[in-house]
Amino acid sequence: MQIDSSPSREIGVFDSGVGGFTVLRELRTLLPTARLRYLADTAYAPYGNRSPEEIRARSIAVSEHLIEKGAELIVVACNTATAHAIEALRARWPALPFVGTEPGIKPAVAATRNGRIGLLATPATAASARLRALIERHASGLEVIVQGCPGVVDRIEAGDLDSAALHALVERHCAPLRAAGVDTALLGCTHYPLIEPLWQAALGAEVKLLRIETAVARRAADLWVPTPDGGSTLDIETSGATAGLRDWMAQVLDWHGMTVHAWQPRNVPA
């Protein structure tokens, strides 16, 4: 399915916080003339600690806002929101394409040599029925070790990317995967590629580490028809502290001088 072009069209991208910037970076490379709008629901991060009902409510509120702003394609740049909300979003707006973000079980199956795959995810993604169905559908007969990783997203959101505390968390979460002898591991949260070297060091150089954000961006690019005027824009919004997000982008992404706008949902618990 492709979408007709009009001057006000945008691609909306959202995540519970900063993890979706890994997808947004890829989108900016693949679609340099696109109008992009990114919403970080930072005040509610991490979604991985929330109930499925809360995640769905926030995802619907965010999507409503993106659509009001002109989104004709929405990238759910959050594994947890995809796991718990994307079916509800597609049911609510059946004519609008939603591109989800899910662990690449099929590429991992193709990559593994010993049949043991590790998956690092948020607690909510790790517990989701959607993830269980993905594993049953694509990795039947293989051993998939799913490791929930509480605390990691919070550290990344704080810009705490190289502290002893974060190193200790990563080491703790990788230990079960090492003990199981996995030879392939999936980063099952868009935040996690921001600290990829830490995961690789904790798992060992012999473990193949897979990430998903490039494939997600490519799927969105395949669905998108560029606007005729080629007028690219990038709008950044957050439900949290605008200055804090601006500082995070400068520190971690080396994106300086970005304007960040405040956003609050209507009729959704904060």
If you had to describe this structure to a student in words, what would you say it looks like?
With 270 residues, the protein is α/β, with parallel strands linked by helices. It folds into 2 domains: 10-101 and 214-262, 3-Layer(aba) Sandwich (Rossmann fold); 105-211, Rossmann fold (3-Layer(aba) Sandwich). Helix content is 43%, strand content 18%. It is built from 11 helices and 10 strands. It has helices at 21-30, 52-68, 79-92, 105-111, 123-126, 129-138, 152-157, 164-180, 196-203, 213-223, 242-253; strands at residues 10-15, 35-40, 71-76, 98-99, 116-121, 143-148, 184-188, 208-210, 233-238, 260-262. The strands form 2 sheets. It has a 6-stranded parallel beta sheet, with helices on both faces. Strands 6-5-7-8 form a 4-stranded parallel beta sheet, sandwiched between helices. Strand 9, helix 11 (242-253) and strand 10 form a beta-alpha-beta unit. Helix 8 packs across helix 9. The protein is globular and about 50 Å long. The protein starts with 9 loop residues before the first strand and ends in an 8-residue tail after the last strand.
